[in-house]
Design brief:
207 residues, 2 domains, six-stranded antiparallel beta sheet, three-stranded antiparallel beta sheet, 2 helices, 13 strands, disordered N terminus, WAK_GUB, polysaccharide binding
């Protein structure tokens, strides 16, 4: 009898472990590969995303929802939408949150395949190593409809790399007020071919 109960307990534990480690149900038409999680009952809750009205979203520390554009589970990467720039004034929608900020204790960080462009910057940025010259790629973006509100402002471009914080793209009033990002950019391509978004990578699941 005791042996039967022990086997039953083990079976229940195995079932619970399987239930907590399975892939989450799709969100809209987007598959949620493990360990990404939209619920405490699936995936790993440390890898938290949100399914909001069938739209998969990543939340910044400031609470801004960023729709997830694509997921590459083999490379541990996903791409999120860049906050919109106001069409009437050169400011990103998350300006008053200071731009994108990711919880440093989370398994997510900003990959080094993002080319970031900052707009409406204070002249102090000219002392930085960023490319703020007339041939900076941000000048191409200013000529698009999306970047038209930032035309003729001081803009700078940089590649997010290991020398910079991988948990933040910073903007602020009195600094730079708007930004966009392109993943794996080809400088020779026109903006119509750019892959706009912010690529995040996640650490393999903690054991």
């Amino acid at each position: 009898m005791a042996a039967t109960l022990s086997l039953l307990a083990l079976a229940i534990l195995a079932t619970l472990a399987g239930a907590s480690s399975r892939d989450c149900p799709p969100c809209g038409g987007t598959e949620i590969p493990y360990p990404l999680s939209t619920s405490s009952n699936c995936g790993d809750p440390d890898y938290k995303l949100y399914c909001n009205n069938n739209s998969l979203e990543f939340l910044s520390v400031g609470g801004t929802p960023h729709p997830v554009l694509s997921i590459n589970p083999e490379a541990y990467r996903l791409i999120i939408h860049v906050p919109a720039i106001d069409m009437n004034v050169c400011s990103s929608s998350d300006l008053f949150e200071g731009g994108l900020k990711i919880d440093e204790s989370s398994p997510f960080n900003i990959s080094n395949r993002n080319t970031v462009m900052l707009f409406d910057c204070n002249e102090t940025i000219l002392f930085s190593p960023l490319n703020c010259s007339s041939n900076s790629l941000c000048r191409k973006f200013e000529e698009t409809e999306e970047g038209s509100a930032c035309r003729d402002t001081l803009c700078c471009t940089y590649l997010k790399d290991s020398r910079m914080t991988s948990h933040r793209i910073r903007i602020r009033v009195g600094g730079c007020t708007a930004y966009t990002s392109v993943v794996d950019i080809d400088p020779n391509d026109p903006p119509s071919l750019w892959n706009f978004g912010i690529e995040l990578q996640w650490l393999p699941r903690r054991t």
